[in-house]
Amino acid sequence: MSLISFKNFSFRYKNLKAPTLKNINLDIEAGQKVLIAGPSGSGKSTLAHCINGLIPFTYKGEITGSLEINGIRPYEKSIYEISKYVGTILQDQDGQFVGLSVGEDVAFSYENDNVPVDIMHKGVNKALKEVEMINFIKEVPHNLSGGQKQKVSIAGILATSANILLFDEPLANLDPYSSKKAMDTIDSIHKNQNKTVIVVEHRIEDVLEHDFDRIIVIDNGEIVADGTPDELLPDNILSYYGLREPLYIEVLKSCNIRLSKEDKISKIENVKKFKDSIVKDYNLNSKVKDESDKKVVLSVENISYKYYKDSEYVIKDISFNINSGEVMAILGNNGAGKSTLLKVISGIARQQEGTIKYMGEPIDRWSVKKRGQVIGYVMQNPNHMITKNIVFDEVAFGLRNNGYDEDFVKKRVEDTLKVCSLYQYRNWPIMSLSYGQRKRVTIASILAMQPKIIILDEPTAGQDYRNYREFMSFLDDIKKTGISIVMITHDMHLALEYAQRAVVMSEGRLIINDTVYNVLSNKEIIERANLKETSISKLAKIYDVEDKSSFLEYFTNKIKDGANC
């Protein structure tokens, strides 16, 4: 008998007319590792909520058909009973914490089960060591960075006895190194503890490196594909449904190489036989690009910042320029000081040393409001920015505060919502939206103000590939008007495709300021800043290409241009 079994299962939320899940027939065997993927709004999170009991106990609605987990029907039990079978990591970390400290939060499941204190302490310490968070055991969870919160959530699930582990976007907000460690941890749990692992995730390349048994693709509430990675990757199933294939597979397809499941391309080592075709394409068509000088719009000069007078500097002696109409990526590991740096630039925090100049004029004494007229800042966590209940009102908030008439506000807001794929939700309560959709609302509220520089902290976190491309294509267009875009990102694909330059930070210091291609082909920098070598660079290594930077640039642009055709 299957561990998880859906039979002709449908679910309709209480406030909606049409079902979100339609006629789901799905069996997951004990011990399998399964990836559930699909575009935003496809129903994949709803499917996950049915498994972990949030439906129907938190999200009310109508169920038809049947769902059994380990022989029981979860919707006929309590959510506490279901938690004994299914442990969950939520995408929105803030909604998961219950303890006043990291240690208390990880100990929650032990306390519920009346585990003796000495065993509890050992279990908590072991879980936190596995995610490299033992030094934060006494810290308040809400004071942690996004990536650190995610690690604590993973530690919490390690402390449960549930045989089914459900991860809802476990890589959101994690730097590449931490993402790999998180997937290594999940992989280790799966192999060593014989858990059944279900992962809901957009970052398919990062996930598939870790030997998944199946990919289940959901679209419009229905299962549209279900197979092994080697069965699904040769076709265009993922891209057809708005999902991103691994980069190295996009390279193969951009060169019109015919693929089949026998090629076993889920492992990059198996594509060595295509070397001649790939290298020939590169040698014939790659060209050196001429990058003309651009006007400096903002200069950061020797900036240092610390939280308290007697504390150590969080960022130290940072200097770089932001040019007119460029996209710059700020890269580095969690805790490197990236978010702090951008808060200083936007005026939310004030540096103790150094100066910031806009068009040559020092702006250190400008008020946050005045600085906000030229520098728009979008926080990493959308819940920290939202002030209104309705989507339209949130995006209109800044415009109304600046005294624009309502006709102007209406047109500007509607245009912005269309660009951000949110127009259909304009009259929705914001809390009814997914985490990724709320993220886009906060971005839209800044874009509506049309600042000269836009700072984005993890702009595409929680967004599917289709919405990601649509949104970044818009940013690509507005930079041509002279607007500069600075973005913190852990998504190397995003940096490769859309940023001209990368500033890389580690331990509060700037360690390199160069083209993205040079940065992401530099092994020393990648290791020092906890970045990740892209699979295109790995291809260059497998194919013995000497100039990895040029190879990376050529195929990144070839893929991007092809996707835009």
Distance from N terminus to C terminus (CA atoms, Å) equals 47 Å
Strand pairing plus helix content: what structural class?
Answer: alpha/beta
Spatial ordering of strands, largest sheet: 5-6-7-3-8-9
Oligomeric state of the chains present here: single chain
CATH superfamily of the largest domain: P-loop containing nucleotide triphosphate hydrolases
How many domain regions? Answer: 3
Second-tier CATH architecture of the largest domain = 3-Layer(aba) Sandwich
Question: What's the number of extended β-strand segments?
Answer: 19
Radius of gyration: 24 Å
What are the low-pLDDT stretches, counting only 5+ consecutive residues below 50?
A: none
Question: How much strand?
Answer: 15-25%
Total of DSSP H or I helical runs spanning 4+ residues: 24
Task: Describe the SSE topology.
Blueprint: E1 4-13, E2 21-28, E3 33-37, H1 44-52, H2 54-57, E4 61-69, H3 79-83, E5 86-89, H4 102-106, H5 108-112, H6 117-130, H7 146-158, E6 164-168, H8 176-193, E7 196-200, H9 204-208, E8 214-219, E9 222-227, H10 229-232, H11 237-240, H12 247-254, H13 275-285, E10 296-305, E11 315-323, E12 327-332, H14 338-346, E13 353-358, E14 361-362, H15 368-372, E15 375-378, H16 391-401, H17 406-419, H18 435-447, E16 453-457, H19 465-479, E17 484-488, H20 492-498, E18 501-506, E19 509-515, H21 516-519, H22 523-528, H23 535-542, H24 548-564
Parallel strand pairs: 3-7, 3-8, 5-6, 6-7, 12-17, 12-18, 15-16, 16-17
Antiparallel strand pairs: 1-2, 1-4, 8-9, 10-11, 10-13, 13-14, 18-19
Helix pairs in contact: 6-7, 16-17, 16-18, 17-18, 23-24
